[in-house]
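Sat 14:20. Reprocessing the chain from the morning session after the first attempt stalled halfway. Input below, unchanged.
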Amino acid sequence: MSHNGTQTIAVPDPEVRPKAKRRQFTAEYKKRILDEADACTTPTQRGALVRREGLYSSHLNSWRRQRDQGILDGLAPKRRGVKPDPPALENAELHREIEQLRAQLQRAETIIEVQKKVSQLLGVPTTPTPKNGSA
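Finished this time. Tokens:
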């Protein structure tokens, strides 16, 4: 209640909260935590470690599995999303190159047409001359 006898009602915050980012753990951090977890002798100690670091036991399980499979690089965070497809990338690059060559060919054909029209206006013959001097 406020000083004049009326109740104060809390108004909810209208601000939109930003979406939480996924946590990413470095390979060094994962190795350090696994070493600490392996050094724990009782489940209570492991539980305290997990709570202290704000982790889940599933983190430890998956990190141990990666380590045991010999995937040291697997401890590093993996990129999420669509993986690039090498043939598709090469295909796209080739299509860009084809379009560039078509544009270049179009410019060359335009220049040749202009040269033909200029030679017609000037009365210069457009027939090719023999190269070896023979007629």
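The chain has a mean pLDDT of 83.
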